[in-house]
Amino acid sequence: MSRDALLQSAVASALGRGIDGLDDVYREELEYDAFLAHREVHRLRGRALVDGKRVPWSLIEKTTEGPHLAQPYLLDNGVREFDAYASGLLDDLAPAVRAPRVHGSAAAEDGRLTLLLEEVVHDGRRPLDSESLLTAAHDLGTLAGRWRGRVPGEPWLFTGWIDRHSQPQAMDAGRATLATQHPAVVARLGDRLPAGRRLIEAQPRVRGILEALPHTLCHHDAVGANVFVVSGETVLIDWESVGPGPVGADLASLLFSSVRRGDAMASVVTEVLDDAVEAYWHGAREEDRSITLGEVRLGLDASAALRWKLLADLAHAIEHDGLIRRGSLPEEPREQAMDDLLALADLLLQASRRAVENGSTPSTPGSFAAGSHM
To answer: pTM to 2 decimals?
Structure first.
């Protein structure tokens, strides 16, 4: 099918009716992880000719080049999302969670993949406010409950999420960075430095905790930029990392990784974190009453504990007066970003201490408040 024919078919699918042609088609390139070459995302919009009328439409077009251009990591992600849509896995995820509807897809002979997807618009504010975080937490819980113990066995599902976050290849450099005696780093990070080194050494323990928890189907990239609250339901975009993982893992993406990227603020996460754990648990129990609050808290804490590299990155930036940039807040002042990420580091270390030292998480109110380090 030609590119024009694919688009015309997709527009007809989106409008739910036959069309006589397209007019005023406009392509707008969207920013999408610029460091990944050979992946493009465009917003397509225009008017369709329907029974003599010109009807407006819009779609999101995602393309991934084939193996002759795209690096294996990027190609694997593109293929995984393409296969997830083609398999029907994303058609019925959970009562309040869905993926954007796919209206067209094509795999070219050279391996180039194209998805034409529904455009979704978030109802709330960005960075995500407390209401959106709590709604998404609850709905991610329903996803966990729906798929607990029922993860499909397709070979294309992503299974390397622990290594993606814990980055074993970077641990030697991380140890060296966190062992610095640079005065500015020591003054700013203090006992976060030895705590970070201990967290690196604790990674095998963290992996064991996560592997022992009940497993479910996870998005594995449920950061705020990929979360859209739309008319009371949560729409998750970018299913490139979908695969098995423990209950609570997606909650760590929502609450911790979102702050790292600037999709949420540490002060907001600190205020709602306990409530978000409860909301996720209640959502999970709507689908599977066997999931316990302790499992959710442990899954969240241990998944957060994988993210030790935040501490090394902060130490490196302070020592070398480097850029502190969060992708969703590119114009944010450096000191403001640093303060928010230091608050996130404290949350991360508290979660890590609970997971590693206790093997479980406390249930008392305020247990996630900022304070001491490992």
So the answer is: 0.93
